[in-house]
């Protein structure tokens, strides 16, 4: 199967604070901090998703010591790349100078784990040696900036990982339950003069409380399942990299699993929810901060639109 050889991340420069948001909608720093843990988020102004995905990809390649020409596959998880076609993965391929198959996957916030699972299939079939995964979303362009119940939650950015042959993937699980009522972002454009349905705005709709309940249950259930599938116990987990949506979801998952809270890596305060970018940004920051030690057992878990979940357990074997 595979090992993670290197990671990278890219976020836009602009830092939007809770106070700035309070000038746009009726909210305040105290409400956002206590209900979500978020203090600030990054928002794209001059950066394009192509610039950010390429930056994250190059950072991961450099960290892994892998050249673009060595790549056998590029997977980009995103809800909305620069174009409908070519895929964002093909755009990344062109920009970094690789020459392998490349495609996108959309599993909303669970995209990074979905991409890892797809890569695992390629390794099982011995079709690849080096794989690049880039997970990036640019939610600010589909946020309803007049809706205080959603616009305070999200931010832009993403991360990347380079995989090589190895045996560090110990378990991985995906789920999906078709649900287009509690979390949905319509396409928003239809240029056909023949289409008879009304066009919807391309903004995010969410029933926050419903998603919250789903998320709290998913985090505990899915982490437990992947740890059991790996033949381990929850005590064996050295670090949890959870989807960074809301600090209360992370705190409740820690409590429900009886895993010490300090084992959960958390950076939601700086980025908000960056969708599929969230887990790989956190993984990269945990790795580069020296938190992850060679031999550590890491559980990762994400949930999001679909409704989807993805969880996995990996051994960290990077020095
Ligand atoms: C969205 C979320 C933070 C709301 O938190 P909550 O504690 O459940 O808050 P509620 O929705 O019950 O709202 C409580 C009150 O705050 C108000 N409120 C909502 N957003 C507000 C804001 N930004 N500022 C101030 N008040 C706000 C509500 O109108 C409500 O007022 P009311 O009691 O007068 O009706 C929470 O449900 C959540 O995190 N859900 C999961 C979202 C998620 O993870 N989505 C991504 C999935 S990938």
Note down, in words, how this protein is organized:
The chain is an alpha/beta fold and 319 residues long. It has 10 helices and 13 strands. The chain has helices at residues 18-22, 29-36, 49-64, 88-96, 111-124, 148-151, 208-229, 247-257, 268-271, 278-288, and strands spanning 2-10, 14-17, 40-43, 73-77, 102-105, 131-138, 156-165, 169-179, 183-184, 205-206, 239-242, 297-304, 306-315. The radius of gyration is 19 Å and the shape is globular. Bound molecules: coenzyme A (COA). Coenzyme A binds at residues 27, 31-32, 35-36, 109, 148-149, 152, 206, 208-209, 211-212, 215, 245-246, 273, 303-304. Coenzyme A (COA) is lined by residues 27, 31-32, 35-36, 109, 148-149, 152, 206, 208-209, 211-212, 215, 245-246, 273, 303-304.
SSE succession: EEHHEHEHEHEHEEEEHEHHHEE
Q: Return the structural class.
A: alpha/beta
- The CATH class name of the largest domain reads Alpha Beta
How many helices? The count is 10
Rg from alpha-carbon coordinates = 19 Å
Overall form: globular
The total tally of domains equals 2
Number of strands: 13
The hetero molecules present are: coenzyme A
Q: For the record, what is the CATH homologous superfamily label of the largest domain?
A: Thiolase/Chalcone synthase
Portion in strands? 25-35%
Q: Label the CATH architecture of the largest domain.
A: 3-Layer(aba) Sandwich
Strand order of the largest sheet: 1-7-6-4-5
Describe the main β-sheet briefly.
5 strands, mixed
Estimated helix fraction? 25-40%
């Amino acid at each position: 199967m595979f090992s993670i050889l290197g990671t990278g991340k890219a976020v836009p420069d602009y830092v939007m604070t809770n106070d700035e948001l309070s000038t746009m909608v009726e909210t305040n720093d105290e409400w956002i901090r206590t209900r979500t843990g978020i203090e600030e988020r990054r928002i794209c102004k001059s950066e394009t998703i192509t610039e950010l995905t390429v930056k994250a990809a190059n950072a991961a390649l450099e960290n892994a010591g892998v050249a673009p020409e060595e790549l056998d596959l590029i997977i980009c998880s995103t809800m909305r790349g620069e174009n409908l076609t070519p895929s964002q993965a093909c755009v990344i391929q062109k920009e970094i100078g690789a020459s392998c198959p490349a495609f996108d996957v959309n599993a909303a916030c669970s995209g990074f784990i979905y991409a890892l699972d797809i890569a695992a299939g390629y390794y099982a079939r011995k079709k690849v040696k080096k794989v690049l995964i880039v997970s990036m979303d640019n939610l600010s362009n589909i946020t309803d900036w007049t809706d205080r119940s959603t616009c305070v939650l999200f931010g832009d950015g993403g991360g990347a990982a380079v995989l090589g042959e190895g045996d560090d993937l110990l378990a991985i699980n995906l789920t999906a339950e078709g649900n287009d009522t509690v979390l949905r972002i319509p396409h928003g454009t239809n240029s056909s003069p023949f289409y008879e349905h009304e066009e919807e705005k391309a903004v995010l709709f969410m029933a926050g409380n419903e998603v919250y309940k789903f998320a709290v249950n998913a985090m505990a259930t899915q982490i437990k399942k992947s740890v059991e599938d790996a033949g381990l116990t929850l005590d064996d987990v050295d670090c949890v990299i959870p989807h960074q949506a809301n600090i209360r979801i992370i705190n409740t998952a820690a409590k429900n699993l009886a895993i010490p809270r300090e084992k959960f890596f958390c950076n939601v305060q700086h980025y908000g929810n960056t969708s599929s970018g969230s887990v790989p940004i956190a993984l990269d920051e945990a790795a580069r901060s020296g938190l992850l030690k060679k031999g550590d057992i890491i559980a990762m878990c994400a949930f999001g639109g679909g409704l989807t979940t993805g969880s996995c357990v990996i051994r960290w074997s990077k020095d």
